[in-house]
Every structure is written in structure tokens, then in C-alpha cells.
Backbone:
């Protein structure tokens, strides 16, 4: 069975600081997908990124960047120059593709509550 | 625009009553999912479906059922509501052909309180 661990329950930083959210995953399968979702105070879940297990290139999107390291089973998320609007709960998730094809949905971590103070 | 909608958004019920939460998507996605969100647990998968007449149990399926009679809808039924089922429920869909590894599009959530 797969598992996603977000060890940081809550992080509080001052605006403009950089912050990294950690995500460690467990799976025995070789084909899998990793995700990050954002849940702002309004409650909706917003997709941020999807990365497959064969693509270890880091990705940058504006102030957001993701570091995928298979050697440590980690998929960390960094926000550069944080802003108050970045305050939200962030979820890391894993989906495994089984050898016979198909999958069984996303397994989510428990989330990290990020607070950006002005 | 295509979307996914849940109803009701808020529901208060009593222990032992049957409750159905509706989920409707207009993307024509094959894959649909129900999750519950609880403090300290993140999102946990209840049931999912990869097409009409297909349903599968997730991590926390006890006390819940779903049926898929068409592509657009996946209603979630609590046969006999319990206080432990007080939660926020999210429906999601994805359109990828590999059944469950694609980006999920979430509804706005349904907050259920069981007294």
C-alpha cells in the first residue's frame, strides 16, 4: 500500500520569506504520479502540479518550484517570496499505476497548514 | 463551462437517517471519486468509479455506498448516518484514460453534520 507523509502540520512565516513544504511518499511500484493541491480558506481544492515517476526534473512556475528526488522518495514544494495569499492548506498526493494497468485514486497526505503573516 | 457540482452544500441530519449527497459533472469524465476530509486525517478515499455501473471501495468505505447509472452522476449514500460520519465530503472527477492517475477536479464540498 502507498503512503504520503507531510510531517509539517503547520508552518508560519513572515511575508517575503521563502518556505519549503516537505512531502515523503512510500510505494513499491515503479510507475506513479505525484501531485500538490492547495486548499485556501474558502475551502476549494486547487490543483498545482502533477509529476510522473520517470521525470525527475525540477519544475518552476512563477514563485512556485518543486523538487522531486526518487533517491529520498521526496517531492518538496517551495514558495519563493511568500505572500499572504499563499496562506492555505497544501496537500501532497500519490497515485500508483499498477502493472496490469489502472489505479485506485489518489492517496493524500494529511496536509500542511501554511500561514503567511504580513 | 464544464463543472462539477455537489448538493447539498450543508446538511444537518440525525443519527440513523439515510442521507444522499449528490455529485454531478459536465466534463463527461469516466472517473469519479468521493473523499472525506477530517482534521488531522487529510482527504481519505471513500468510493470511486471508472465508468457506468463500475464502483470500487476506497480506504474508508464502511457505512457508505455509491451507484453509477450514468456518466455524469455519482451519488454517495449513507445508509444509517452515524456521528463519526460528520465531515466535509468532496466529489472529484478526472478524464484521463489511465483510471485514476490524472488531475482531479474537485467539487466545492458538502459539509455534513450528524447529530
Residues:
Amino acid at each position: 500500500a502507498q503512503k504520503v507523509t507531510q510531517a509539517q502540520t503547520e508552518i508560519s512565516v513572515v511575508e517575503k520569506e521563502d518556505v519549503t513544504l516537505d512531502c515523503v511518499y512510500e510505494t513499491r511500484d515503479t510507475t506513479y504520479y505525484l501531485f500538490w493541491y492547495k486548499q485556501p480558506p474558502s475551502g476549494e481544492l486547487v490543483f498545482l502540479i502533477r509529476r510522473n515517476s520517470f521525470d525527475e526534473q525540477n519544475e518552476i512556475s512563477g514563485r512556485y518550484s518543486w523538487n522531486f528526488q526518487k533517491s529520498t522518495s521526496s517531492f518538496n514544494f517551495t514558495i519563493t517570496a511568500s505572500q499572504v495569499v499563499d496562506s492555505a492548506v497544501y496537500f501532497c498526493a500519490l497515485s500508483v499505476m499498477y502493472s496490469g494497468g489502472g489505479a485506485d485514486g489518489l492517496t493524500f497526505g494529511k496536509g500542511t497548514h501554511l500561514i503567511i503573516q504580513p | 463551462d464544464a463543472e462539477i457540482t455537489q448538493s447539498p452544500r450543508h446538511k444537518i441530519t440525525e443519527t440513523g437517517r439515510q442521507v444522499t449527497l449528490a455529485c454531478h459533472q459536465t466534463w463527461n469524465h469516466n472517473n469519479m471519486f468521493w473523499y472525506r476530509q477530517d482534521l488531522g486525517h487529510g482527504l481519505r478515499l471513500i468510493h470511486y468509479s471508472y465508468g457506468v455501473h463500475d464502483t470500487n471501495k476506497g480506504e474508508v468505505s464502511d457505512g457508505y455506498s455509491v451507484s453509477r447509472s450514468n456518466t455524469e452522476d455519482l451519488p454517495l449514500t449513507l445508509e444509517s448516518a452515524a456521528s463519526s460520519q460528520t465531515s466535509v465530503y468532496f466529489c472529484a472527477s478526472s478524464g484521463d484514460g489511465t483510471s485514476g492517475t490524472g488531475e482531479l477536479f474537485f467539487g466545492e464540498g458538502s459539509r455534513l453534520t450528524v447529530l
Notes: The mean pLDDT of chain A is 92.
